[in-house]
Specification:
heterotrimer; A mainly alpha; B alpha/beta; C mainly alpha; B: alpha/beta; Rossmann fold; six-stranded mixed sheet; 25% strand
């Protein structure tokens, strides 16, 4: 069977799988960004309890595998009375994992805003919340966009793991088609190319545009 | 523990100084930067602080801006304690809330301008009035435009700092500080990071402030000529203490202390 | 004092069984060893192949540089899980039949070689241009310049990145479970399906990963400063 015939036969399943993958990617990214922000700020807190909670979260999620976390959230959490639907468990696990890495990026970005900016904001008597939100974070975003681009690519790749808890994403469809047809080269090759197109020709140009947009907004260009 | 009852809860009456440092001490671990500093600045007075680097002169301004905590003594602004507060008749260390309430009396300009790079010149000036003082955008814009006019930056009001020269950035920074309507303005080596040919545009703005406005000002500077021209009083700092102070004509023309003489002649040779 | 927190109806099946825990620990430790072997072998492949990829990207041939660059980008932007399936299932179609172990280690090694090539490149580029010029002024050959001047200086800045990817490869080995490599997750899955108890096995796997990867950051830092001292930097 030629590649063309193959794709014309299986495109509906590949397309629906791609849709689920993109949905998982977007939802995980949102969860990761929110958690990264929260835990970065908590880790910078002077309250030891708050700081300790953030450090614990970050170290646990960075110190274990995404797959272990996914299985734990999907198979073990129900024993604690919290049952997540598999689709939800998928993006929550990926988002929590990436959020821990992202928290360090956010913290690094915040710390690399020059000290003079904090002082100038204090000199016009801004409250600490306003200093962070209006002066420091906008500048930190500009600094941390390139590493966030890489992290978001890792999230996209990580979504493939949700197939292992039977979320019907692109990886899952590929596995299923392979099991029924044994056309491994065609199906896995096609899936690889779809992931590559999403990452390289859709997401990367978007990040470039966004970096340029932020640079203009931050008055750098 | 220091006995705080030695310090008044409030300074009042005629001739209350705008700024008063009383027995202020600042140390970083074993390194004493300022010791037992007493310094008063009268309302409307322009005081310049000069001295070799490491003499603690910048620290004086940073303490007054509450960027540094002091280790002993009390700083008063407009007769009321800044670094401390009155708690049932006793002076206790200021809470963040007290500092926020009192800090609005003071404005500061920095050596490296520290303009917010993600905001245009006028947005930099409007930021405090809108988000700290709670003015409407229209009020803040009027006020900011007036001040940008004063510092000669009105044509560049919509430019981001990256498009402005050092001198222009510093003038915007002065407008930004003035927009908060402080009672005391602090200038921390505002010309030190500038190319020689643009120093004049910044010093001219400060001259204008001195002659046209009745602001209390404290200025740390390396420009002796400028300090001599515009100050009411000059303080020479050496090794964490005021070694000598007086009217500019006296201090520059007829320094009494040996260290002052050495410093001034060393500066003269360098020029 | 916290009894009220642990009501049965809240945690219907939450009953950690210590006897059972001790029973499964030996199997998990054996799997840990397998995991470490898989990660170590994969890393060895990545270290060597990554260097080739890095040097190829610095070659004078525009075509070679372009092809390698695109290959690295391709591998880095597609899921490792999919690559594992691809090599394992497509290999036999072209006449290369590999055991799950070998196939898995090769895939993970090639995947990470692309990341390591970037680390090497970063290290080499961190060596100031003046060093190349000084080597040229001493009339050193390209090979001599790399060996005697550039690489010794490129190593210390590359160590943190290299160390992070060692930990990364270790944490990605669970994906090999999908083709039947008996590493930690594969073993935990097996235990779970035998007894229908997932709590102990998955939790222990998590703890084992933490116990091995948490100290790694400290070791990497210590190793970096050791190398810097050795090189007198």
């Amino acid at each position: 069977m030629s590649l063309f015939e193959f794709i014309s036969q299986y495109w509906p399943r590949l397309l629906s799988g791609t849709g689920i993958t993109v949905a998982q990617f977007l939802l995980s990214s949102v969860v990761a960004i929110i958690l990264a922000l929260i835990f970065a700020l908590m880790k910078m807190s002077s309250n030891r309890l708050v700081k300790g909670a953030a450090v614990t979260y970050i170290e646990i999620f960075r110190g274990t595998s995404l797959l272990v976390q996914l299985y734990w959230i999907f198979f073990v959490l129900p024993l604690f009375g919290l049952t997540l639907e598999k689709f939800t468990a998928g993006y929550i696990a990926i988002g929590m994992n990436a959020g821990a890495y992202g928290a360090e990026l956010v913290r690094g970005g915040i710390m690399s805003v020059p000290r003079g900016q904090w002082e100038a904001a204090l000199a016009i008597n801004m409250s600490s919340a306003k200093r962070m939100w209006r002066i420091i974070l906008p500048q930190a975003v500009g600094i941390m966009l390139p590493p966030w681009g890489n992290l978001l690519i890792e999230i996209l790749k990580g979504t493939a793991l949700v197939s292992l808890i039977s979320v019907t994403d692109l990886m899952f469809q590929a596995k299923q088609i392979n099991a029924s047809t044994y056309l491994s080269a065609q199906i896995f090759g096609t899936a690889l190319i779809i992931y590559y197109i999403i990452a390289r020709f859709m997401f990367t140009p978007f990040m470039r545009w966004f970096e340029g947009f932020m640079a203009r907004k931050l008055g750098k260009a | 523990m220091e006995d705080m009852s030695a310090y008044p809860l409030e300074i009042s009456g005629d001739g209350t100084p705008m700024v008063s440092f009383q027995k202020v001490r600042k140390a970083y671990g074993p390194l004493v930067v300022l010791d037992n500093l007493d310094l008063e600045v009268a309302t409307g007075e322009m005081v310049s602080i000069i001295g070799p680097s490491g003499s603690g002169k910048t620290t004086v301004l940073r303490m007054l801006m509450t960027l540094e905590q002091i280790n002993a003594g009390v700083i008063y602004v407009d007769g009321r304690p800044l670094t401390h507060m009155d708690k049932a008749g006793v002076l206790v260390e200021a809470t963040p809330k007290h500092l926020r309430a009192r800090r609005s009396d003071i404005g500061m300009c920095f050596q490296h301008f520290n303009l917010f790079p993600h905001m245009t010149a006028i947005q930099n000036c409007m930021e405090g009035p809108v988000h700290v003082l709670g003015l409407t955008k229209a009020e803040a814009r009027d006020r900011s435009e007036e001040l940008l006019e004063l510092v000669g930056m009105i044509e560049k009001k919509d430019q981001h700092p990256s498009r402005l020269s050092g001198g222009q950035q510093q003038r915007v920074a002065i407008a930004r500080a003035l927009a908060m309507r402080p009672k005391v303005m602090l200038f921390d080596e505002v010309t030190s990071a500038l190319d020689p040919e643009v120093i004049g545009e910044v010093t001219n703005v400060i001259r204008k402030l001195v002659s046209e406005h009745n602001l209390t000002m404290l200025m740390v500077t390396h420009q002796m000529g400028f300090a001599r021209d515009i100050s009411d009083r000059v303080c020479f700092f050496y090794d964490g203490k005021i070694e000598e102070q007086g009217r500019p004509a006296d201090l520059f023309g007829n320094p009494k202390r040996e260290r002052t003489q050495q410093f001034l002649s060393a500066v003269k040779e360098a020029v | 004092m916290f009894d009220w927190l642990f009501k049965d109806e809240w945690f219907p099946k939450f009953d950690w069984n210590w006897g059972y825990t001790w029973e499964i620990i030996p199997r998990l430790l054996e799997a840990t060893l397998n995991t470490i072997i898989a990660a170590g072998a994969g890393y060895a492949i990545a270290l060597v192949f990554g260097l080739f990829l890095a040097l190829a990207q610095r070659s004078k041939s525009r075509a070679l540089t372009f092809i390698v660059r695109e290959l690295v980008e391709f591998v880095r932007s597609t899921p490792l899980l999919l690559q594992i399936f691809f090599i394992f299932y497509v290999g036999p179609q072209v006449g290369i039949t590999l055991s799950p172990w070998v196939s898995g280690m090769i895939t993970i090694g090639l995947h990470y070689s692309c990341y390591l090539s970037e680390v090497y490149r970063g290290g080499i580029e961190s060596v100031p241009k003046g060093q190349w010029e000084a080597a040229t002024a001493l009339n050193m050959s390209t090979l001599q310049t790399y060996k005697r001047v550039v690489i010794p200086q490129a190593i210390p800045p590359a160590i943190p990145g290299m160390g992070n990817y060692l930990v990364g490869i270790f944490k990605d080995t669970p994906m090999l479970s999908v083709i039947g490599v008996a590493e930690l997750i594969h073993t935990a899955n097996a235990i779970g399906s035998e007894t229908w108890r997932y709590l102990e096995a998955y939790t222990l796997v998590g703890i084992i990963f933490l116990a091995l990867s948490l100290p790694a950051a400290g070791f990497i830092r210590a190793f970096e400063s050791f190398v810097r001292r050795k090189l007198g930097m």
